[in-house]
Specification:
six-stranded mixed β-sheet; D-Maltodextrin-Binding Protein, domain 2
């Protein structure tokens, strides 16, 4: 066939094809330009409606849609401490059209023997924010600062009652931190969430509870509860007069900052152009005034981490938390089995 004729035939068949959709679902224009996403994206939230992960996800998703030019259709999928949602996303094609909107729990699936899935099988798009834990007591409690409570706990081992949400939950981890650093043990009373635990605290059924600042904010503003420690390296605006644990007791700095975190992931193997597009859409969304103000009112601190920064953050959180739980005899398997190193002392 003559070269000119062949060239004409190629133009006839190829030029009208504005995009070629590859096997994994990412579309490429005739010039090689990336056109992902060409349809809406599904966002699977691993916790139920109204919780912190749900609230954060539903606030940031519409902001990220602006950079994507497509909708993010959100759906709650609960069960097995978030493992049902994670497995669902893992079972989907790695094409960038299914996001996992999750909290920190998968970092502990191995040591708690919940699921074989790990964050290592997913690509972090953005870690949005970290919740700040606080230790709260009733307004009329005799302890003004956590140091006073710890001193009494040393004098009366196992007598002070602590509200808890069970192994792996925020209150349990903070209690394990106090056991590891200060050598104190409490009478841990489990409840089905921070809300019921604080209700019990207000009713005098427990003496104190470690909770997320977001969960306790309204009680604090109404002066029903008093904060005796901010479990962080620095004070927070909601309770500026309350010192941070890392200030009061420097020996805790090896474990801080610590707190639940929220973010978005895609299955590993998602094409790099799709990952970049998602990262580039979520970064300004998390940095926006709208989201930053919302996170502040929730008592959380923005992170806005992606790529290797996000991986390092998760690994450090996992190291601190898994070993605290293991030393408190709350794990089913040793962190060593999963190659999780003990946190370095600072």
């Amino acid at each position: 066939m003559h070269a000119t004729t062949a060239s004409r035939l190629l133009r006839v068949f190829l030029v009208p094809a504005l995009v070629i959709t590859l096997a994994w679902g990412v579309a490429i224009g005739p010039s090689g330009a990336q056109v992902y996403p060409e349809r809406s994206i599904t966002g699977i939230i691993q916790w139920g409606a109204g919780g912190a992960t749900d609230r954060v996800s539903r606030r940031v998703a519409p902001l990220a849609e602006r950079g994507l030019g497509q909708r993010i259709v959100l759906s709650n999928m609960t069960g097995a401490t978030g493992a049902v949602a994670m497995q669902y996303v893992f079972d989907q094609r790695a094409d960038g059209y299914t996001l996992l909107l999750a909290a920190e729990n998968p970092a502990l699936y191995g040591v708690l023997d919940i699921s074989p899935r790990t964050f290592d099988e997913f690509e972090p798009i953005n870690l949005f924010a970290r919740s700040i834990p606080v230790v709260v007591v009733r307004r009329d409690a005799k302890w003004r600062y956590l140091t006073e409570l710890i001193q009494e706990a040393k004098s009366h081992p196992g007598q002070i009652k602590a509200g808890s949400t069970g192994p792996g939950g925020l209150p349990f981890v903070v209690g394990a931190m106090m056991t590891a650093v200060s050598g104190v043990r409490f009478n841990s009373i489990p409840f089905d969430g921070e809300g019921p635990g604080m209700t019990a605290l207000l009713g005098g059924h427990v003496d104190f509870m470690a909770v997320g600042l977001a969960a306790a904010a309204e009680h604090i503003r109404a002066e029903r509860l008093r904060v005796i420690a901010v479990v962080d390296l620095a004070p927070v605006d909601i309770v500026p007069a309350t010192p941070a644990l890392g200030q009061m007791m420097p020996e805790y700095r090896a474990y801080l900052p610590w707190g639940p975190f929220y973010g978005a992931w895609v299955k590993k193997g998602t094409p790099a152009p799709a990952v970049r597009r998602l990262v580039d859409a979520f970064r300004p969304a998390v940095a926006s005034e709208d989201f930053t103000e919302f996170i502040g009112l929730m008592g959380s601190t923005p992170l806005n981490l992606s790529g290797e920064e996000a991986v390092r953050f998760v690994k450090q959180w996992q190291s601190v938390t898994a070993w605290l739980l293991h030393d408190a005899k709350a794990t089913q398997k040793s962190p060593e089995q999963f190659g999780i190193p003990r946190p370095a002392r600072r």
